[in-house]
Specification:
The structure is a homotetramer. Chain A is of the alpha+beta class. The first copy, chain A, has a single domain, classed as Hotdog Thioesterase (Thiol Ester Dehydrase, Chain A, Roll), CATH 3.10.129. In chain A, 24% of the residues lie in helices and 33% in strands. Chain A has four helices and five strands. A five-stranded antiparallel β-sheet of chain A has the order 1-3-4-5-2, with helices on one face. The radius of gyration of chain A is 16 Å and the shape is elongated. Chains in contact: A-B, A-C, A-D, B-C, B-D, C-D. Chains A and B meet through helix 1 and strand 2 of A and helix 1 and strand 2 of B.
Chain lengths: 150, 150, 150, 150
C-alpha cells in the first residue's frame, strides 16, 4: 500500500543563500527531482512522455511548507506520492526527510494539468497512467485514486 | 487603499526550461524580488533589517498558482501586497502581470516568521513594522492589518 | 569608438550563497542579461533571432575572473562588448562594475558559434550582423572587427 | 597516478533552458558538485573546512569549454582533478563525461584562493592539504604538484 517512491539528493553549495540555508525556491527543484524519479521507478522516463506522446505536465499550482532549515551537504530523502490522479490533472505530494533521524524538513504538493505542445488540455495517455498508478492502482475503481499522506 | 508596490522584471534566458517557458520554481524568485522592492519602497533595505536588527524573515510557507506561461524576454510587473501582519508572522501576496495587457501570469503568497540569527521566533522590530505598513497602516487599530487581494 | 552597451541589474537574494556573496555561476547569468541587452540596444530581440532566422548562438566557451565579491542588493552595471565577430563565431566580453565607485567586480568572455536548430554551424544572418556591429562596424573592412577592452 | 575522483549526477529539468539543453552557467554548478565530492573522497567535508579552520576557497577564475550539448535526464560523470596546488591557490580541473560512451560534454577549470572569513589571503591548513593531495602527493617534493589532464 506504500504508494510512494524515495530518492536521495545532497544539498549543493549553489542551493544555499546568505542565510546559510537552502534558498526557498530550490525546494521546488527537489520536488521535481522526486517527481522524475517517481516516474522512472514506475517505468516511465518523463522525457519520453514529452517526446512520444506529446503530452506535457504543466504545473498549475505548487505549495511548500518549510519545517526545518536545510543546510549545505545535507543528504535528503525526497519522498514522492501520487496523491490524486484525475483524467486531466494529477497531484503529487512530497516530503523532504532526514535519512538519519527521519526529521521532516519540508512538505508540499504540485498540481499538474496534462496538455499538448500548444498548451491545450488533453487526457493523460492510458499506458502511462497505468504505469504511474502502479500495482495497487489496478484495482482502483474510482476516477480519483487518492493516496493519503497521513 | 491600494497597499501594494509594483516593480518590473524581465524574464532571463536562464529562467526558462526546455518547455520554452519559465521553470516553475523561478516564480518564487520573482516573488522575492517583489518582496525586496516592496520593502525598499517603504524605506527599508531588507539587507539592513538582517544586519541592524538581527531579524530574519524565515519563509514558513510558499504557494503559487500558475495561470499563463511566462516566456523569455517578457516584461513582468511583480505586484506585491502585505496581506497580513501579525506580531511574529507576516504574509505577502503577489501577482505577476503583463504590463501591456494586464493579463495575470501567476499569483501566490509567502508566509514569514520573524526569527533571530539562531532561528528563534521574535517580534518584528517596531520601527520597521511602521514603515512596512505605510501611511494607511497608521490608522489601523487591529493587530492584523489585512489587505484584500480581491 | 566605445562599442559597448550598459545595463543595470540588482543582486537578488536567490543569487547569494552561504558565504554571503553571489554564487560563482550566477555571474554567467549576469553576462547573459548583458548580452541580451546589447542585442536589444542594437535593435535585435534575441528571441527574434531564434524564431525568425533559425539561428542559435551556442556557447562554446565561457570565462570569468572574479575580482571583488558581489553582495545582495548591490546594483551592478553589466558592460557588454562585442569583442570579436567572425563569420561563424562571435566573442562577447563583459565587465561587472559598481555604478557608484567604478570598481570592477568581475570580467569575462563568452565565445559563441552560430548554428541551426539541429546544432549545425551556419553563418550569422547578414541583417543581424550589421545591426550588432553598429555604426562603427559599417566602416570596418576586415572580417574580424575587434573591439579592444583596454 | 590517476589523481582524480568521479561522481555521477543527473541533469534536472530545472537545469535546462528553452534551447532544450543545459543552460551554460549550470555547468559550473556541476563542477562544484565534483569539487565537493573530490574533497569528500579524500576525507574532507568541505563544510568542515569552512567551520573548523575558518578557511574559504574563494573562486578567482572559472572557465568552461562546451563540447556537446547536455540534455535533460542525462547521466553525467563529473571527473575532478586537483590540477595545481600552491601555497595560497589551487586549481581544479573538470571533465563532464557520458558514462556510457565516454563522450566529453564539457571541460573546465576553477582557480581558488584561500582566505579567511574577511577575505584576506591565508595559507591552506596543512592537515587538509595532505588529505587533498592524497597518497601520491606525499612523495611530491615541489610546491606545485601538477596533474596533467592530457
Amino acid at each position: 500500500m506504500t504508494s510512494f517512491e524515495d530518492c536521495t539528493i545532497r544539498v549543493r553549495y549553489a542551493d544555499t543563500d546568505q542565510m546559510g540555508v537552502v534558498y526557498y525556491s530550490n525546494y521546488l527543484v527537489y520536488f521535481e527531482v522526486g517527481r522524475t524519479e517517481f516516474c522512472r521507478r514506475r517505468g516511465i522516463a518523463y522525457a519520453e512522455i514529452e517526446r512520444q506522446s506529446e503530452s506535457y505536465l504543466i504545473v498549475a499550482e505548487a505549495r511548500c511548507r518549510y519545517r526545518r532549515p536545510l543546510r549545505y551537504d545535507q543528504e535528503v530523502v525526497v519522498r514522492t506520492f501520487l496523491q490524486e490522479f484525475r483524467k486531466r490533472t494529477m497531484t503529487f505530494a512530497y516530503q523532504l526527510i532526514d535519512p538519519d533521524t527521519g526529521t521532516l524538513f519540508a512538505e508540499g504538493e504540485t498540481v499538474h494539468v496534462v496538455t499538448d505542445r500548444q498548451g491545450r488540455p488533453k487526457s493523460f495517455p492510458e499506458e502511462y497512467r497505468r504505469k504511474l498508478l502502479g500495482p495497487e492502482g489496478e484495482t482502483t475503481k474510482e476516477e480519483s485514486s487518492e493516496v493519503r499522506m497521513d
